[in-house]
Amino acid sequence: xxxxxxxxxxxxxxxxxxxxxxxxxxxxxxxxxxxxxxxxxxxxxxxxxxxxxxxxxxxxxxxxxxxxxxxxxxxxxxxxxxxxxxxxxxxxxxxxxxxxxxxxxxxxxxxxxxxxxxxxxxxxxxxxxxxxxxxxxxxxxxxxxxxxxxxxxxxxxxxxxxxxxxxxxxxxxxxxxxxxxxxxxxxxxxxxxxxxxxxxxxxxxxxxxxxxxxxxxxxxxxxxxxxxxxxxxxxxxxxxxxxxxxxxxxxxxxxxxxxxxxxxxxxxxxxxxxxxxxxxxxxxxxxxxxxxxxxxxxxxxxxxxxxxxxxxxxxxxxxxxxxxxxxxxxxxxxxxxxxxxxxxxxxxxxxxxxxxxxxxxxxxxxxxxxxxxxxxxxxxxxxxxxxxxxxxxxxxxxxxxxxxxxxxxxxxxxxxxxxxxxxxxxxxxxxxxxxxxxxxxxxxxxxxxxxxxxxxxxxxxxxxxxxxxxxxxxxxxxxxxxxxxxxxxxxxxxxxxxxxxxxxxxxxxxxxxxxxxxxxxxxxxxxxxxxxxxxxxxxxxxxxxxxxxxxxxxxxxxxxxxxxxxxxxxxxxxxxxxxxxxxxxxxxxxxxxxxxxxxxxxxxxxxxxxxxxxxxxxxxxxxxxxxxxxxxxxxxxxxxxxxxxxxxxxxxxxxxxxxxxxxxxxxxxxxxxxxxxxxxxxxxxxxxxxxxxxxxxxxxxxxxxxxxxxxxxxxxxxxxxxxxxxxxxxxxxxxxxxxxxxxxxxxxxxxxxxxxxxxxxxxxxxxxxxxxxxxxxxxxxxxxxxxxxxxxxxxxxxxxxxxxxxxxxxxxxxxxxxxxxxxxxxxxxxxxxxxxxxxxxxxxxxxxxxxxxxxxxxxxxxxxxxxxxxxxxxxxxxxxxxxxxxxxxxxxxxxxxxxxxxxxxxxxxxxxxxxxxxxxxxxxxxxxxxxxxxxxxxxxxxxxxxxxxxxxxxxxxxxxxxxxxxxxxxxxxxxxxxxxxxxxxxxxxxxxxxxxxxxxxxxxxxxxxxxxxxxxxxxxxxxxxxxxxxxxxxxxxxxxxxxxxxxxxxxxxxxxxxxxxxxxxxxxxxxxxxxxxxxxxxxxxxxxxxxxxxxxxxxxxxxxxxxxxxxxxxxxxxxxxxxxxxxxxxxxxxxxxxxxxxxxxxxxxxxxxxxxxxxxxxxxxxxxxxxxxxxxxxxxxxxxxxxxxxxxxxxxxxxxxxxxxxxxxxxxxxxxxxxxxxxxxxxxxxxxxxxxxxxxxxxxxxxxxxxxxxxxxxx
Length: 1259
Prior knowledge:
This protein has 1259 residues and is an alpha/beta fold. The longest helix has 29 residues, at 125-153.
């Protein structure tokens, strides 16, 4: 090509930065240019000011910038760079909640440390904004201080003329002038908007609109009054102030209009009734493919997971919920993140580990004593482990994308349910949530709560029906010819068969009659089953099931001992072929091959070997863990045909059968025998029917003695599943873990619990109401010089009304049967129309009910009924109730009702009603229906009344053509009796409240009744209505005090004091202070740090044992024996006498005395648990067993020392090892190496042989 000639010369780049050599030459070769004569500018001594307080203040600096690569989330391809602030400089796990803080120590990577801060929980946006705003204000102050220091050190013109420059540039002209003062202030006052429009959720600003003294009533204890005021506040009162309302931000994700029942602010129900035709379009490349066609609910869930949404899958048993969890794991593997799968029990964690291990490469298991592959992409653990990781700031949380909560309906568990709520609350915002559950009726409400506290939309996906329908039968056979007596009572469509029930009842009764004819009435009357009849019944049942190909079967029995007994009775039954026996024998021997010789010869092991070869198994908590796993694996292989199990088999292990049999539908719940709840029955019956193998599942109820009542059966079989209900409670561990983090408070967690879900939904409304009330009341002109006598009367009457409202439920349910009967004279009021007056009971609604819901009462009426109080002579004196309070209808609503209630206490007489004859010559009257709370008094007087005649006659005369008729004599007599009593109320005798109710041992209620009666009598004897000031001033005083109470109540409902557990929280804080775990400022002390290491069970007790040197002189075996009282749960086990171990016996008494001291401290601080009850929870039933085991005895030998079953002993020792490890960690904190060494020795002494045999699922 021809070269193009250069037109311009190469000038190079312009010089921007001067050359250093040129500057040096200028400085050295031309000294005349140096300003040596300007000494005032060159030689200055600046004396720095010394501010020692600044040494205690941390000065934040501008955050440095770093370059960070940007990658595509799916492929990881580099797409660019971006500059980001390194705001986490200097932040560590010990001082920061940020996800960008420096990683912790390597050995703390998995479980974290009790000295670490947790990561900032998701949904705590309000608290985070407040914290950031406070930091911004501090930064503004620091910048002002630095500017002032700069002006002292340098010349002002340096900002305009740089050094060596002759001229400069002023930037002042380039600065924009603020438009107005308000804009300028808005840029500085970061809280102005908050003060203008909003209220902090728990921090209500103080009202200065009214000048009054605080109420003498303790609002926190007036739950009934709070409820009363809440009910009276009308939501439509704000219809004219829409511009003032603030709506909480809600994620608007779905663009499809949904019906009201399928969408809530933070939850949305997915319609699974129609096939998902566009699934392949939404998910063209699945992260994990399945060898079968997915169900509709599974497709919807997977589509939402691909969109990185949060889901709540509430599906029937065996519907395939695990598919959703598997897909989330596959996504996390694809995204190079991690997933945590939580289960309610350790056995289910082990089973899921094996299942996922067969599907995914990188799977880990974390339990109390086992850690397998902790760096895996998916970690399986119990929910308690995850809670500990969250509180301890585990670095695993950083990489977490999904948390799967399996069996989340376990939240209903009274002992452990609170753990699920804590974990949901403490999860950081970057973690997505998957909840798997059986069907629950309030899935939307629960999902909305989760979404609201995490500020994430939750999609609820439910199944419409079971994949394998169930058929329910009654079995009345007892072996022999009756072995096939089975009757269908509930078909697969859910229809109850009355014919099947009647046939079953007839068959049972006919055979019982023949039995009585054969053996006599006495034998039939005893109606008892002996061992032979039990054996005959079960052998007949198994033959029937085998003949109809209904095996395998799970027989639920609500007793561990009965399970063992039934299995022994079936020793003559053989359900396996020779080949199956050989397979069972080989698997069994291989499973126990790692046990030492003496353990392989345990009676339970030998018995199970023989039992399993016949295809029969037993599953309950008393079985050795390794044997339970053998049973589970053989059951999955269809080699165990008959399994006797307790209820726990249905709660955890997912192993469906062809048939489920109920040995009984009654169970003992700790207090007495009762029929199974629908939720319990559904959970266990749901194990029947194997998907892909059975067309229907069979559920059989054994009727050994009597046929259950039909209502009992229908309620149990067709009732709804249990609703998810909060079991949230406060523990010392939770309180201490939160107190050590200043940025989070216990109240922050309490108010986000499911327990407070309903209250949280009302918060925005209450804030609006408080804003409106404060604004309106500020416009009122009150006369504050009210008579104190009237104020005191108002407060006393209000308290009296409040006490009565709290007593109403008790009085209603305990009123004697002979009190509320026709003819009884009562004092009733039905405000605002009818004030207090005498009446006579005509009937109860429903009739002859006790207690009745309502009463029909005959009363006298007057033309003044229903008139305003101004019309009755009360002066408002400028209060102008209808005008100045216009728009504050929550104050006006029921205004007359409350005023009328107080008037009752202002008169000395029992009533203040004077009837008048009408023009026809009788007293006007009416029959009204009153609620129980509208009956003020019961009188000792009774009159004879013909209730039906009176009611019919009054109805007749209400018609216009009979209106002028005179009442018949019996009606007129009743009217005259009522008139006499209203004219002379002082002659009427009342029945004291304590004589109106049946006898009770509750002294608190009796004292409360007496206090109410005394307060009422005192108020009425004051006869305040006789004072001239009463009618001229009380209406105004009442209006003022009513507004004051409304404001106080709204402030109370928006404060932490309204939390249900606030009183318990305050009591526990007092306990921690009293015992030295925190100081007066709630700062965690050394004892508190030790308690944080102790998990969530008996943390105070273990800490006191450690810090009181209880283990200092005890040998390792005795240490283990003493700590066993903290983990042994069986109640009905007699404590060993320990006569041969005097030192151990002495230490046991020391532990009980220590526990008694904690119990007494709790009682003194307001906790209701009696001290002795606290002591009784520490059980030493296995102290001797653990002591001998730690000394080296074999498992076979220690079994001779107790009647406790093998499985319970193993479980106790395993939990004991976890407790010993916690104490060892505490020894590290307090710096006691000898205690640490002793704990290691104690752990080594118990950690051996069959007790710690590895799980078969992990092999």
